[in-house]
Design goal:
Helix content of chain A: under 10%
Mean pLDDT of chain B: 98
Number of helices of chain A: 0
Distance between the termini of chain A: 40 Å
Number of strands of chain A: 11
Strand content of chain B: over 45%
Radius of gyration of chain A: 13 Å
Helix content of chain B: under 10%
Largest sheet of chain A: 7 strands, mixed
Radius of gyration of chain B: 13 Å
Structural class of chain B: mainly beta
Number of strands of chain B: 11
Order of helices and strands of chain A: EEEEEEEEEEE
Strand content of chain A: over 45%
Oligomer: heterodimer
């Protein structure tokens, strides 16, 4: 069974960048790729984007597309999400989600990113 | 973007009684390949979400059979046949047919 372990909490000032990592153990990421989803405090789930580690296909949500970059390493075991020009409303828990289609959907433990001056 | 509308927002239920959550999409979720990519997620307090149901009605491994999903097109339902204490949390529907993927606003299930 796949486990996704994310990097630790971050505190950033407005205008800074943050890079969150997501490491898979037990298997590599599947062809179906990795999604990134965030959840602001007390709010619902917001899809941010998706990357396929094998063909480089990427989709970003329009809300963040000018500020976000998603990549994976060449071994398809670690994914990264970088968000730039941080604002206070980027404060959220960020989740990576391994998509294994009918075989499962595996979520990381979440990474709290706090943006505060 | 496809808008996913869940109801109710809050669902107080008695232990052992059934519960039902509705999810409606602003467009049909039937894909050109014949599949309908409507998923249900459960988020218990303080935990990461986990997928319960994929493609409308398929339970993920380890999900109790008291959970069931149904629907088609734009109208979908998650049912819990007999609510247990561990079912407390927020439930989200999510469509994966159209980019960008979108979630419903969530339904909070609590025990009366």
């Amino acid at each position: 069974q796949v486990q996704l372990v994310q990097s630790g909490p971050e505190v950033k000032k407005p205008g800074a960048s943050v890079k969150v990592s997501c490491k898979a153990s037990g298997d590599t990421f599947s062809d179906n790729g990795i999604h990134w989803v965030r959840q602001a405090p007390g709010q619902g789930l917001e899809w941010m984007g998706w990357i396929s580690p094998y063909n480089g296909n990427i989709k970003y949500a329009q809300k963040v597309q000018d500020r976000v970059t998603m990549i994976t390493d060449t071994f398809a075991t670690t994914a990264y999400m970088e968000l730039r020009s941080l604002r206070s409303d980027d404060t959220a828990v960020y989740y990576c989600v391994g998509d294994y289609s009918d075989s499962g959907s595996y979520w990381g433990q979440g990474t709290l990113v706090t943006v505060s001056s | 973007d496809v808008v996913m509308t869940q109801s109710p927002l809050s669902l107080p239920v008695t232990l052992g009684q059934p519960a039902s959550i509705s999810c409606r999409s602003s467009q049909s979720l039937l894909s050109s390949n014949g599949d309908t990519y409507l998923n249900w997620f459960q988020q218990r307090p303080g935990q990461s979400p986990r997928r319960l149901i994929y493609k409308v009605s398929n339970r993920d491994s380890g999900v109790p059979d008291r959970f069931s999903g149904s629907g088609s097109g734009t109208d979908f339902t998650l049912k819990i046949s007999r609510v247990e204490a561990e079912d407390v949390g927020v439930y989200y529907c999510m469509q994966g047919t159209h980019w960008p993927l979108t979630f419903g606003g969530g339904t909070k299930v609590e025990i009366k």
